[in-house]
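Job type: complex structure
Entries:
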Amino acid sequence: MKTGKSQKTDIISKGLWSNNPVFQQVLGICSTLAVTNLVLNTVVMCVALIFTLSLSSCTVSVLRQFTPRSIRMMVETLIIAFYVIIVDVVLKAYWPEMSSNLGPYVGLIITNCIVMGRCEAYGNANPPGKAFLDGFFNALGYTFILLIIATFREILGMGTFLGLSVPYFSGPHWDKWIIMVMPPGAFFMLAIVTWIFRSIQTSMEDKAK
Amino acid sequence: MIRKKPWFPIVYMFCLTAFFSTIVIGFTQATGERVEANEKLAFEKAVLAALPGLYEENLSRLQLHQRFTESVSPPDDSSGDAYTLQKNGQTVAYALPISGQGFWAPIKAVVGIKADKKTITGIAIYQQNETPGLGAEIAKTDFTEQFRDKVISIDGDPINIKRPGTVLGDSNVHAVTGATQTSTRLENIINKGLKEWLSKMSEK
């Protein structure tokens, strides 16, 4: 039996690295491709996902002893939708520009496979505290990959970072790669990032042997 | 045991739904006023941006609202349901709200037209849900700036949105690359709105 502390490190390293939702499990790809053309959009989207994933996994875990098995998927969807609507309403009320930038993608967190996957695989079978931690670090694992993709796409495609111009890339010597901010750019970046991270992972595993 | 009863899942789901819905409804109610104010402000901002010489980048929400109430006159019969900009009792420009179906969701916009009813002073899109990075570019100034000082064509369609790279006439603008659907739909919305408005105005 593992001690409490090593269990926590285990959850953290799984969420961020060895079981990373994006490059390892290849989940949540729809939003990965859609919102990464600007870093700011990505940041807001990721904060929304961190909030939704950690709290819904925690809530599913709180209710796990009462929820009949036959309707657990319905209950999970309900809980996820609840948190997503809260995020959506807050954005509409306090940051309408961002809300219109992200368009339907905030609402689509409800169908993000990472959220459902973590609730189903972890929240359903573990105590609330651990479920929260697991959700939080899985969302962070998603966040850091998305930020890498978004940074490259925005700099190469628009010559800016967070809307500020980047020297050289915004200048006349750099012919902006418009394709990077269009959907194909997202596929290229995702494939490259997955390739790099998986290669690092395999070489680390080989060394460990 | 109560959890073994066949009706338990139904009652459980019902109670849970009622609980979460209550919170969401309460929350939506609490922020409803602010959301509504945001939508109204987005419209007022669009009207100011479409009319000549009213919009500035750094105005606060309150300043925007003040400028709108001070300078823009509400629509009446003689303006064909368009908002107007008056100077010394004379109409200087019209701001015509238009709307229609976009590629994903409705597009709402305001077209500014000079008093001669021939020249466009600007266009501002205040509601759209097109593809981010592609269709959504119609809301950016790079695209909308093209409409400034374009002439409403008398024969054929009032305004034409043409393929990027083609030579433009007085009544043409370039479409957004990679967003043909959105561009065509926007073209239809603008033309339908302008035609209806022009026929209304010519009856007067």
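Summary: Chain A touches chain B through 34 residues (CB under 8 Å). Chain A has nine helices and two strands.
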